[in-house]
Amino acid sequence: MGVMKRVTMVFRAKANKALDRMEDPRETLDYSYQTQLELLQKVRRGVADVATSRKRVELQINQLQQQMDKYNRQAKDSLAAGREDLAREALTRKAGVQTQLDDLRTQYESLQAEEEKLSQASQRLQAKVDAFRTRKETIKATYTAAEAQTRINEAFSGISEEMGDVGLAIQRAEDKTAQMRARAGALDELMASGALDDMVGGPHDDIQAELDRMGAGHGVDHELEQMKAELAQNAPRQIANSAAGSTDGDSAQSATAVPPGAVPAGDATQAGDQE
Amino acid sequence: MIVRILGEGQLEVPESMHAELNQLDVALESAVDADDEASYRSALTALLTRVREVGSPTDADDLRPSELIVPQEDATIDEVRKLLTDEGLIPG
After folding, report:
1. With an 8 Å Cβ cutoff, is B69 touching chain A?
2. Which of A4, A16, A198, B56 is the most exposed place for a label (fewest CB within 10 A)?
């Protein structure tokens, strides 16, 4: 008979069963309308639920991204400090986080698609529920039993099919968000406990500890280098100014403005004398 | 005739397509019966592609029921099997 026909028959059977439960066709209409409104509420809640899960995953993506950035920074700092071993460790951890991140991004996209589908289903159902309400009032107004029964059956099987479909969509979305929540919860715990670091290698942030330990001296050296470079750029202009006939006071002032140790290349002799 | 793709909505499909869609559907059914994942996937994709090609979406407030209902693109073979039984997936 084919899959399509069989699925249709199952849908139709559900609708007929619901119809048969009602004695008065008008009662059927009102009852069905109530059920439709409830389903609309449910599908809207479904959309909101999926959105919440999606936002949570978004937050985790950001956190993992920050962690990646951190490892990247650590790798650079380590290399600059001549510690290739530390840099390698940081990059290894970064790769571990990258795997998690890729996985999360895939899930994020699937949640987005689910949200979109549900929200469209919600709009379709809304349109059909509105149409049903109008139809329902017309049928009730022109009520003559035999004729009404046929028209009720028509309207009812259409809306009932839509409800079955939306019901399915909600179930699927619920399943997916439940899975997602469990995963997100697990990942949250991992991140909170620092176990993510453990998982991708070594105890929590020993790289940073090591870097910090070496860091004090290294940071100062680095800053000094930068200052020297800046001053070296400014120096030629200052020298040019002095050469253009500035007073002794001026050059003394420019010399004191230079932090100790940061020696403009051109002023090496003078700075050396001061020290 | 009206064809519903689960999770997507209804499409108006020319009556003349009936025979061709039926053929695609028979292939889908035997794949489900044989529990053959590969041919199931390609049969479902072929059917959905054809329905989308020849069908045009009905108005959202159209209350007519569908003559044929196609499972959604990502439905598993197991889900389809459940769709085919009365106590299966469809709520209500």
Report:
1. yes
2. B56
User: How far does chain B reach from its first CA to its final CA, in angstroms?
Assistant: 25
| B9 and chain A in contact, CB less than 8 A | yes
Count of beta carbons in the 10 Å neighbourhood of residue A19: 17
User: Which two three-digit tokens encode residue B13?
Assistant: 């499909």
Tell me the per-residue pLDDT of A212-257, one tens digit each, with 9 for 90 and over.
776 544 555 666 677 778 888 876 665 555 555 444 444 444 444 4
Do B7 and A125 form a contact (C-beta atoms < 8 A)? no
* Measured distance CA(A31)–CA(B84) in Å, rounded: 27
Looking at residues A21-36, what average pLDDT do you find? 81
CB contact under 8 A, B60 and A159: no
Measured CA angle at B88 (ends B83, B91), to 5 deg: 100
For the beta carbon of residue A42, count every other beta carbon within 10 angstroms. Answer: 16
Q: Is B9 helix (H, G, I), strand (E, B) or coil?
A: strand
B22 contacts in A (CB within 8 Å)? 2
A152: closest CA of chain B, how far (Å): 11
Q: What's the gap in Å between the CA of A185 and the closest CA on chain B?
A: 26
Strand partners, B9: B5
Q: Which A positions 163-182 lie with beta carbon below 8 A of chain B? A: 163-165, 167-169, 171-172
Count interface pairs A-B at CB distance under 8 A: 108
Taking the whole predicted model, whether its pTM rises above 0.90 is answered as no
Chain B: nearest CA to A15, how far in angstroms? 8
ipTM of the complex: 0.86
Q: CB of B17 within 8 Å of any CB in chain A? A: no
> What is the tally of helices (H) and strands (E) in chain B?
3, 4
Model pLDDT for residues A118-131, shown as the tens digit of each residue: 999 999 999 999 99
Q: Cβ distance A107 to A183 under 8 Å?
A: yes
Beta-carbon contacts of A126 under 8 Å, excluding residues fewer than 6 positions away, are A40
Residues 6+ apart with CB under 8 A from A169: A43, A46, A117, A118, A121, B6, B7
